[in-house]
């Protein structure tokens, strides 16, 4: 009985005095690991988020860019840290959904992380050369079907989000086209403008300036909502392909095993950040749509995306050489 009383008292003390780690969090600077180089849109989004998170937590949040090995270098940095909420990961559609489906020898697993929040989605645009006679999704599909296997499209690489966006679209529309992979979006857009490619799907962050300058023509948006910057442009779903929704997305995550109280604190701060109008405006200005979501909602979303891209990779028999 005495032993039981001791256990009860210990339990009460644990409730009244939670672990110092959760109680005092945070008491030092945090790190936000980003699997992209500095200077790009993803890095800019990370720095906007880190700056606002630092204000809420009262501690510095240092962005560390760790590129290479399909996100594995960034994941290694997170896995080598303690699961204490002081090392965050900007996890992406690539690290969490596409790479696990495409790369059989990936040295990390998506399950290594717990999610704090969704961060942003970036719509993609279906575009053609501004001099192309094609002006609608229907015209592109009709032209592709009349010329099977003759149209070409570019992407930022095999298994990239733009590549798989076209694979999904072509499968739904019932046509075949030749994929021309590049090492990034800039050269593929250059070749599209030069007439070396027929069409492509790429994030609005890279395509919109060329649309505004009259070098590319947008046919449709890849996500369900129209863009404020192009309010008359229909979505692919509106153009006859219901439920088509292929955007690029980022989440904020921590190492699995991080105390739930710490995750909740980070989630609460993240929700505050992502609904704040000044932050929303800054993100929207670079083409990123803020997506506040709870940890459970974020995990469910990522799991749906993982299943979707695994099926896409299998159906298209995609392989990285």
From TrEMBL:
Superkingdom, according to UniProt? Bacteria
Q: Where is the signal peptide?
A: 1-22
Q: Keyword Chloroplast, does the record have it?
A: no
The keyword Signal appears for this protein:
yes
What are the TM regions of this chain, as residue ranges?
Answer: none
Q: Which UniProt keywords apply?
A: Receptor, Signal
Could you tell me which InterPro entries the record lists for this protein?
BUG, Bug_dom1
Q: Which PANTHER family match?
A: BLR1237 PROTEIN (PTHR42928:SF5), TRICARBOXYLATE-BINDING PROTEIN (PTHR42928)
Family statement: Belongs to the UPF0065 (bug) family.
Write down what this protein is called.
Tripartite-type tricarboxylate transporter receptor subunit TctC
């Amino acid at each position: 009985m005495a032993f039981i009383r001791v256990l009860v008292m210990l339990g009460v003390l644990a409730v009244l005095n939670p672990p110092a780690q959760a109680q005092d969090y945070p008491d030092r600077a945090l790190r936000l690991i980003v699997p992209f180089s500095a200077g790009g849109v993803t890095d800019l989004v990370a720095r906007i988020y880190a700056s606002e998170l630092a204000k809420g937590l009262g501690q510095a949040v240092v962005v560390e860019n760790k590129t290479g090995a399909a996100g594995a270098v960034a994941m290694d940095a997170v896995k080598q840290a303690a699961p204490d909420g002081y090392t965050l990961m900007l996890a992406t559609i690539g690290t969490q959904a596409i790479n696990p489906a495409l790369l059989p020898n990936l040295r990390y697993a998506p399950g290594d992380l717990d999610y704090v929040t969704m961060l942003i989605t970036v719509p993609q645009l279906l575009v053609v050369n501004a001099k192309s006679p094609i002006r609608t999704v229907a015209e592109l599909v009709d032209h592709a079907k009349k010329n099977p296997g003759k149209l070409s499209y570019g992407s930022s690489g095999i298994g990239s989000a733009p590549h798989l966006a076209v694979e999904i679209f072509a499968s739904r529309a019932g046509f075949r086209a030749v994929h021309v992979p590049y090492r990034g979006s800039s050269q593929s857009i250059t070749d599209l403008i030069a007439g070396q490619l027929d069409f492509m799907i790429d994030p609005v962050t890279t395509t919109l300036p060329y649309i505004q300058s009259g070098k590319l023509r947008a046919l449709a948006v890849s996500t369900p909502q129209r863009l404020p910057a192009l309010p008359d442009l229909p979505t692919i779903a509106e153009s006859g392909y219901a439920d088509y929704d292929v955007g690029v997305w980022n989440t904020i995550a921590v190492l699995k095993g991080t105390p739930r109280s710490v995750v909740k604190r980070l989630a609460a701060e993240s929700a505050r950040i992502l609904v704040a109008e000044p932050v929303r405006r800054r993100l929207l200005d670079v083409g990123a749509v803020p997506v506040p979501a709870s940890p459970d909602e974020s995990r469910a979303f990522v799991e749906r995306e993982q299943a979707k891209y695994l099926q896409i990779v299998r159906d298209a028999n995609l392989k990285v050489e």
